Fold this sequence. Notes:
Elements (H helix, E strand, L loop, with lengths): L31 H48 L7 H12 L2 E6 L7 E5 L5 H9 L3 E6 L6 H9 L3 E3 L7 H13 L3 E5 L19 H5 L4 E12 L2 E2 L2 H7 L7 H10 L3 E7 L5 H4 L2 H27 L12
Parallel strand pairs: 1-8, 2-5, 2-6, 3-4, 3-5
Antiparallel strand pairs: 6-7, 6-8
Helix pairs in contact: 1-2, 1-4, 1-8, 2-3
Amino acid sequence: MDSASDHRTVPDREADTPAAPRAPRRIPRDGTARQQDGDFAGLGGLARGRRRLGAILILSVAFVLMGIFVSVQPVVLRFAPQRRWWLPPHWYRTIARLVGVRVEIVGKRVSGPVLFVSNHVSWLDILVLGSVLPRAAFIAKREVAGWGIFGRCATLANSLFIDRTRRHASLDQTKEMQARLARGDSLILFAEGTSSDGTGIHPFKSALFAVAEQFPEMLVQPVSLVYTHVNGIPVSRADRCRIGWFGDMELLSHVIELIAMGTIRAEVRLHPPLTFADAGSRKTLARECERLVAAGMIAARKADDDRTGRRLTSAPAHPK
Length: 320
């Protein structure tokens, strides 16, 4: 387990002691009890409003940090390109802590250049993996580059954008990946080609492993990313759906709602590396990576269930 001080485990909250039994409440005939219930509901709404306001304030600070990043990183890229990887991981780590994410690493990172292959749950994955995987560029769909300041940050953080709709462009994109690997950079691939709610994973797309075919001895390290706790409590199915960013969810509103949830613990499980030479084909490599990532997700949840005494409920490998 990584012992870096920047990524600490959020301790599990101790089980609450059972409340003492209370006498039945007498309901006055004038409906006072109903009024009291309404008051409690109002307090709950007020608390949610305060959390949302706090999330907006945190997001405002994050935008300021994004502005600093898009101002400083271009200077670094122009005058000290050899230092292009110094700022991004610090920036990822700072934003992650600001929005309430704490990261635990299980397993050992291999030295680069490496193709890291991970499942994809949320935009939050970028902050988590970017803060713990050194000199690693995200492989993202081309549309991300046009997402305003988010796209600008992704570009300056050395992301590599690919166009999945143009087959004839795949050769040029593969060459760009080869160039990145040749200069010592690692790559981070979300092999599902989309995101999910984190309950299970979608089948890995073998076409995305084309770069491994060009570097048969290159290490390919599967990575399982699981969000395990919210405010020290193991996540529920509903929590996973709130953390996940998938379908046609609007980005900004999802960011605010996720920050309002509080402290989120993410577990990154690093599996033993594979190579294309050992697998023999892209399909075999994709299948083996998918198997290891899925097994790691189940193991992460089982470890938390064992610690908290909860019963493990298996989820389908490929949610609808």
